[in-house]
Design a protein that fits this description.
Blueprint (H helix, E strand, L loop, with lengths): L2 H13 L13 H7 L9 E5 L6 H8 L3 E6 L2 H11 L1 H4 L2 E5 L14 E7 L8 H14 E12 L6 E2 L2 E2 L5 H8 L3 E12 L5 E11 L1
Parallel strand pairs: 1-2, 1-4, 2-3, 4-5
Antiparallel strand pairs: 5-9, 6-7, 8-9
């Protein structure tokens, strides 16, 4: 991704209300379902890649997690999320503006217990972008740590927000993650946009061996 990609996402988050965005979730139910299957406590380090203005952060705070890292390429998106949370809750989160295809800060975080990505990986249509994503993931996810990835399924949309998409199923994600990671669970999920249009996803939970 490039500076123009950062501008793209800043423009997206500037031009619409959060609850009108095509990926808005009132509650991040499938992510929370998979999170509940991880053998972790409330003090572990959770890294959310491509946070945007996700309500997942609200849910993690309400659940009592104390070491949450929210990362996104768009400062505008994170600013909107901080504003919604309010100063007290926002202070409980570490905020990182970074590009997962050319990271400056994420690889210096140290070990994380859980890597969460809903709808970032499928935007990485170039091999070098995916290679950097995976190398960064391997750099920070600890042994025994978890990786939760959700993407558009093979039956899903081929574009989102005007950008091309790389679609996946669980077999393609297993191949992408490689032998260091074991697939713990996966399921198909039908997400409905605020417009009512259906968007088929695949959700996966991996654990590092």
């Amino acid at each position: 991704m490039t500076t123009s990609m950062k501008q793209h996402w800043d423009n997206v988050y500037s031009s619409k209300k959060i609850n009108q965005l095509g990926w808005y979730e009132e509650i991040s139910a499938p992510s929370l379902e998979l999170l509940s299957k991880c053998d972790i406590n409330k003090g572990v380090t959770l890294l959310d890649i491509g946070t945007g203005a996700s309500t997942l952060i609200d849910s993690l705070i309400e659940a009592g997690f104390t070491n949450i890292i929210a990362s996104d390429i768009s400062e505008t998106a994170l600013s909107k999320l901080r504003e919604r949370l309010g100063k007290e809750k926002a202070a409980l989160v570490k905020w990182i503006v970074d590009d997962i295809t050319n990271p400056v800060h994420i690889q210096n975080l140290g070990e994380v217990d859980l890597w969460h990505d809903r709808a970032v990986l499928h935007f990485l249509v170039k091999k070098d972008e995916r290679d950097t994503y995976l190398a960064t993931l391997k750099m920070v996810v600890k042994q025994g740590g978890y990786v939760l990835i959700a993407t558009f399924s093979l039956n899903g949309a081929k574009k989102c927000s005007g950008l091309d998409i790389r679609n996946y199923d669980e077999k393609l994600l297993v191949e992408f993650m490689g032998e260091e990671f074991e697939l713990i669970e996966h399921f198909d999920y039908m997400y409905y946009m605020p417009s009512g249009e259906a968007r088929p996803y695949i959700y996966t939970l991996f654990q590092r061996k």
